[in-house]
Amino acid sequence: MSTPAVDIQDLKFAFDTTTFDFGSAQIQPGQVVVLLGPSGAGKSTLMRLLRGELDPLEGTVHITGEQVQTRKKALVLNETRAGWVPQLDDLQPMLSARENIAHHLLRLDEEEREERVDRLLTTMHLKGYDALPVRSLSGGQRQRVSIAKAMANEPPVLLMDESLAQLDLRTKTSILLDVKRMVRETQTAAILVLHDPTDALMIADELWVIRDGALVQKGHPKTIVNQPESHAIAGLFDHINVVPRDVDIPGSWRLDGEEKWLFAHELPALEGAEVLEVFTTPSGQMQLLAWKGLELLKK
Description:
The protein is built from nine helices and 16 strands. The strands form four sheets. Strands 6-7-8-3-9-10 form a six-stranded mixed beta sheet, sandwiched between helices. The protein has a four-stranded antiparallel beta sheet with strand order 2-1-4-5, covered by helices on one side. A hairpin with a 2-residue loop joins strand 12 (254-256) and strand 13. By secondary structure, it is α/β, with parallel strands linked by helices. Helix content is 27%, strand content 31%.
């Protein structure tokens, strides 16, 4: 069996009175994992643990079999182990795209350095823009440079923490598909924090759902969408209705503690329901209904 690109074991972290418990999980080479969850759930904390910025309270992080050295121990983070693409790029604005990428390849001879930079420029569709100072590039092009820079040292793991959140849908989709293709070709493992679940379903080989500082569900995207472990997870992917479990209401409701839920598109016709409002969504019209003191969504 091949060595996992990322292997976390019994991983915990504590900050003030908050404890994060991410448990154990693995990522294989060539695999894209997307972290999903509400703001403050712990997604960025997990990314910082993977990168070595934070020291675990308990447990370990290994990248290709080697334990991650944290900043406290190594002083300088090892960018040859995990390439990092932050939310706001850290490029040198006066330097060209080519110079920003090549900046961290000083240990290579000139010919090898130019060859690697050319390959990355081609992969990220930056040919023709590589001589321009990055301050003159669009937001999408700058993030392409950031990704190429993160991959310059051919790390086994690429980490992207909401790096594409500021981009329009078309640009973001194009970059995500290029990242997926690059990961497959290089057999890198990629871990992305994405804000939009639609993006996650498009690119992910596996989803990790994080809530309240814990990794609560992981698996193939289709499995998680079809079999979410709670209505909080289901609500990440589509509009849902949640009511107390003892409410008598038609439909194939799923129990979740003292509540039950179903997707808006699963709500059956309800006799006597009043339409309060009609919304237009990309997937069709949705109604807000009033029925026996409840407000319900029907798609």
